[in-house]
Structure formats: C-alpha cells, structure tokens
Amino acid sequence: MNQITKKIYAMSALLALFATSVFASEVTGNLSNGLTNGVQGVVIVSPSAQPAAGTFTSSQSVVLSAAGSTSIHYTVDGATPTCTAGQTYGAAVVVWASQTLKTISCYPDSQSSSVASFVYVINLTVTPSNLSLLLTSNALDVPTGQSTTSTPSLQATQDIAIQVTAGGGMSTVTVPSGTVITTTSGASFDATALAASEPSSGTLSNLGSGVVVDGSLQWGIPNLGLQFSTPITLRVFVGTSLNGQTLTVMRSVTGTSGWTSDGIVSPATCVVAAGVCTFSATKASYYTATHTTPITITTATASSNGGGGGGIFFPSGPSKLGDMNKDGKTDILDFNFLMVNWGTRATGGAAQGDLNNDGNVDVLDFNILMVNWTL
Q1: Which residue, 292, 322, 342, sits at the end of a domain?
Q2: Is 113 in the same domain as 197?
Q3: Strand-strand pairing, 140-141 and 124-126
Q4: d(CA 74, CA 81)
Q5: Which letter does DSSP use for residue 302 in this model?
Q6: Do 254 and 319 belong to one domain?
Q7: By Cβ atoms counted within 10 A, which residue in 70, 180, 277, 282 is the most buried?
Q8: What is the residue range of the signal peptide feature (predicted)?
C-alpha cells in the first residue's frame, strides 16, 4: 500500500468518526440534535413567563416564551400539560383570578421540556367606576345557567377590594374569597346594579336625636336587602381628628330609615385608627360611623315654699341624654330603667327609655346610654 492510499484510508476513518450521530443529555434542558461535520444543537428549556409569578391587585396578561420551541402548551385547571394535551399557547394568557399556570415547551423529534408552574395571586381592587369588572372577570360569579341580570346568588371567587374616595381619605370594602351574596328575601336580583359610593350627609336621615354622622359608605344595591355568607370588612374614613375615639356603627337598607345594628358584627362599634373606622358586616347596604351629642335638658326647680302635692322631685340643673331619672347622672339607675323597658315598641310617639326616639327601646338606646355614662 503506497503512501497516497494510506492517507486516503486515514482521512476516511477520521471523517467516519466525526460523521457519527451524537445525542447529548439535558444541559439546562436537553441537547439532542445530531452532530455531523460541525457542532449544531438546540437547548431544550422550560417556558418562562412575564410578568413573573406573584401577587397582584389587577388581572395580568402573561406572555410565555421558550427559545427554539415549536409550541408551548399550558393548563390553568391543575392538570399537567403535555405536547399533546392542554391548550396550545398562541397569545398572552389573561389571568383574571388567582390560579396556577402550568406550562411545557415542545421541540422536534418528540422532545419536550420539564413542566414549569407559575402561581399568580390576584387580589382584585376596583373602584365605583369599574365595578362591572367584578362580573366580567368572574371575580363575582353567578351559578351555572343563571345570568348577571337575574341571579339568586353571587360568589366571590377571590378576595375583592373596592376602594371609594372619601373626603380626604379612602374607604374600602373587602369581600373574602368564597363569600356568597344573596338577598335577605331569597329573591333573585340584578347583579349589574351593584354600587359603591360615599353618600353625602344630607341624603342620610332618621338616625335618631343627637346622632352625628362621622363617616358613611354605601356598598350593595340601594333599597335592596343583601346578605353575605362570610362577614365582609369595611374601613370607613372619618378623619384623623377622631383617632382613638369609639364610634357607633349602624346600617340601613335605604339610608333614610330602619337604622339598626343588626347585620353589623358585634360590638357594632369601632375605635378610630389612622382616621379609619374598621368593622365587619353580614348585611348591606348603607353604613354609618356615628357619635351622639349629649342633649342638655333644663329641669324645673322645686319650690321652697311647698305647695302642690305629690309627684316626683326633679333636681334643678342640666340633665344629660340618658339621665332617665333626672338625677343629674347617667348611671346604673338609668341602666335599670332601660332594662325594664327593653323591647318596648311605641306607635305614634317615643317609648319610655327610647333615647333616640325611633319608637323602639333597643341596642341603639343602650349605645347612647353608654356614650353618656357618668363615671
């Protein structure tokens, strides 16, 4: 064999060596393209997501990408995606509510990446102007087969915050995930009529004698009784000048009558902090944080010359609201008087012990008594 033939055989052997197909195992993924006369390959990577997973206060449009992939598949129902199962990614995935996005990238020759999961927590925050987003995003969901304009119930599929601008601050309604909203009568209702606002003080009436409104908030459907399966949290802005003060909380369906503590989680009061009165409620829809201004009553002076017969002696001087026996103090004797008359309902006038003159002797009168208690 001459030298030329030997060189040809040697070159042939060398070419055969480098022409052999080589497959590499995963390197931050899998490298599986054949190597011929030069090094070529595609790194198999799991999908990435933008924005990154996290907690947000609004819906997110999530963009998926995986360099060199032929397709990306994903699921939002907890199932594990494959290159033959799950939704095929084509445009940004809109995440309206809290959910886990599971993804996989697919490559030629039936190669695929490992599954990548992205957890998005959406605590939806809306304002009165875009409350409809709660329905269109299914943050408030109607039962199957029902419509938003006539539904027996709504269910919160995530935590919801409704922010209402109030004077120099912000009032907030928080509805916990899983809360079911129904009418107190059990009738169907139009969910598109849901509203939130700060009522002007002039629109609220018949709260009782001496009651001063420090802050108010409307959430629900005006003039319709709604109830919540889980207490909602309300934060009513009343101003920092009231910090540390205890206010009485009441609610009304209409805002003009029927003010009550029913539907306000006990003790139906709040201690103002950072200018906000925070309390919980199970019914809607007008809420007020109030205090009662003591009413001064001038009583007659008994004559030193006697005269007249019988009757009860009332000492002279001012008498505070709640001083039902007119002894100049609001104390245990007045409490006993209130208890004796508890539950009394009057028609055509106030009942004895009815301190707010609403015709009933109830917890509202008890609150007035406590506010004016003499130490």
Answers
A1: 292
A2: no
A3: unpaired
A4: 6
A5: P
A6: no
A7: 277
A8: 1-24
Torsions phi, psi of 280, nearest 5?
Answer: -120, 155
In the chain, how many domains are there? 4
Label residue 245 exposed, middle or buried (CB < 10 Å: 0-12, 13-18, 19+).
Answer: middle
Which tokens hold the place of 162?
Answer: 């409704």
Q: Which domain holds residue 317?
A: 295-375
d(CA 3, CA 26): 44
Quick one: 299 and 371 in the same domain?
A: yes
369 touches 355 (CB < 8 A): yes
- CB neighbour list of residue 341: distance below 8 Å, 6 or more residues apart: 351, 352, 353, 354, 361
End-to-end CA separation in angstroms for the chain: 124
Task: Give the integer Cα–Cα distance in Å for 70 and 68.
Answer: 7
> Same structural domain for residues 251 and 158?
yes
What are the pLDDT digits (tens) for 75-120?
A: 998 999 999 999 999 999 988 778 899 999 999 999 999 999 999 9
Question: Are the CB atoms for 319 and 297 separated by under 8 Å?
Answer: yes
With CA atoms as reference, report the closest residue to 329 among 338, 342, 337, 320. Answer: 320
Residue 69: both structure tokens together: 């992939």
- Shared domain for 72 and 176, answered yes or no, is no
The winner for highest mean pLDDT among 56-65, 67-76, 91-100, 199-208 is 67-76
